[in-house]
Specification:
321 residues, alpha/beta, Rossmann fold, UDP-galactose 4-epimerase, domain 1, 2 domains, seven-stranded parallel sheet, 10 helices, 13 strands
Length: 321
């Protein structure tokens, strides 16, 4: 039985990844600074550890006969409302986690190491621009500090692979969403935030949306992303690889899709707020080359996501009543 360590197992993507690895027959240890907020862990063992500390990374990696695979997803992160304001926390906390974890994994003799990067490493784009390939992250000009830290951590991981013979796989995630993720409190991303606002609003009411709705995104359903992580980890792709759907949509279309799924008549007020880049148009040939493709359309993924968030909203309102 293979053994895997999932760092960030108390988070949205990490929690889903633990489930995937268990289905594949792994013994899994999950590690995070907090337990999963919405789903009980399916890990065989879960440790509460602050991975900003070197000694805690050593403890996370300590297991009889060592780990076959380490998945490093732990980070200080959130949606635009968070990353536009928490620059110091992101640069400090995530950098410490990545510095200590990749170093200690290499020292522990881990043969295969996964690092979760982000499409935030790419520059801002204008709608309609030609696709960017992974190599086009250079010359580097990320739109925010979250992207800069991710880019540095990518380079550090690749340096360890070149010099210390640990196989490294790097995925640049593109706007992941789905159930069992943060949906309130300020760190939620757009699909979850819009779903919450719609679920909380009475028929005929109004919701506020940052920007003017024109920003273009590719929203990737969590099941698709998890499958991409697993396939990439076991592939021969040794360079950073973007994982994301080829279905691009505007924020306005996202909002109208959620409203339509809800069955309500809700109006939109666009207001000033942190929006992020104007557009993303990223080439997916590399991840497609190993047989991966997105199985869920935006409509299909948002139907499941909205239903889950609507349930959370109703349960919260019932407790508060």
């Amino acid at each position: 039985m293979k053994k895997a360590l999932v760092c960030g197992a108390g988070g949205f993507i990490g929690g889903h990844l633990v489930k995937k690895l268990k289905r594949e027959g792994y013994w899994v240890r999950g590690v995070d600074i907090k337990e999963h907020e919405f789903a009980p862990t399916q890990a065989d063992e879960f440790l509460l550890l602050d991975l900003r500390k070197d000694e805690n990374c050593k403890a996370a990696l300590s297991v009889q006969d060592g780990f076959d695979e380490v998945y490093q997803l732990a980070a200080d992160m959130g949606g635009m409302g968070f990353i536009s304001k928490a620059e110091c926390e992101i640069m400090h906390n995530s950098a410490l986690i990545n510095i200590h974890m990749v170093h200690n994994a290499s020292q522990a003799g881990v043969p295969r190491y996964f690092f979760s990067s982000s499409a935030c490493v790419y520059r801002d784009m204008e709608p309609g621009e030609p696709e960017l390939r992974e190599v086009d992250a250079y010359p580097a000009m990320p739109d925010n500090e979250y992207g800069w830290e991710k880019l540095y951590a990518e380079r550090m991981s690749l340096a360890y692979m070149r010099n210390l013979h640990m196989e490294v796989r790097i995925a640049r995630f593109q706007n992941c969403y789905g159930p069992e993720g943060t949906w309130t409190g300020g760190r939620e991303k757009a699909p979850a935030a819009i779903s919450r606002k719609v679920a909380e609003t009475e028929n005929g009411g109004f919701i506020e949306v940052w920007g003017d709705g024109s920003a273009i995104r590719a929203y990737t359903y969590v099941d698709d992303l998890i499958n991409g992580i697993y396939m990439l980890m076991h592939s021969d792709l040794r360079e950073p690889t973007t994982i994301g759907t080829t279905e691009y949509t505007s924020v306005e279309k996202l909002v109208k899709t959620v409203i339509d799924i809800s069955g309500k008549d809700i109006h939109i007020n666009y207001i000033e707020g942190p929006v992020g880049v104007k557009s993303r148009n990223l080439n997916k040939e590399k991840i497609h080359s190993i047989g991966w493709k997105a199985e869920f359309s935006l409509r299909e993924g948002m139907e499941t996501t909205y239903k889950w968030i609507e349930k959370q909203v109703k349960e919260t309102q019932s407790v508060q009543a």
